[in-house]
Specification:
With 67 residues, the chain is an alpha+beta fold. Helices cover 22% and strands 28% of the residues.
Length: 67
C-alpha cells in the first residue's frame, strides 16, 4: 500500500481506527506495510486504519479509505 501511494505521487496520512483515532507516523506505516514490525495498535488482533490521501495539484479533493 505504501508503495502504491508513493508511486501515485499522492500525499497521505494514516490513522489507527481501533480503540481510538490516532495518527500513525510514516515510519510506523511503512514498517508495518513491509512486514518489518507488527501493527502498533491492534484491536482484537487486527489492524484497523484509515488513510486520507490527496494529489498535491488538487489538494482540495481528499479521499478516505478505511481498511
Amino acid at each position: 500500500m505504501s508503495k502504491f501511494l508513493r508511486q501515485s505521487g499522492a500525499q497521505y496520512r494514516v490513522f489507527d481506527m481501533g480503540r481510538r483515532v490516532c495518527k500513525l507516523t510514516p515510519e510506523q506505516f511503512v514498517s508495518f506495510d513491509n512486514c518489518q514490525l507488527p501493527y502498533p495498535y491492534p484491536f482484537k488482533r487486527f489492524a484497523q486504519m484509515g488513510i486520507i490521501f490527496w494529489h498535491p495539484d488538487a489538494a482540495e479533493k481528499q479521499y478516505v479509505w478505511f481498511l
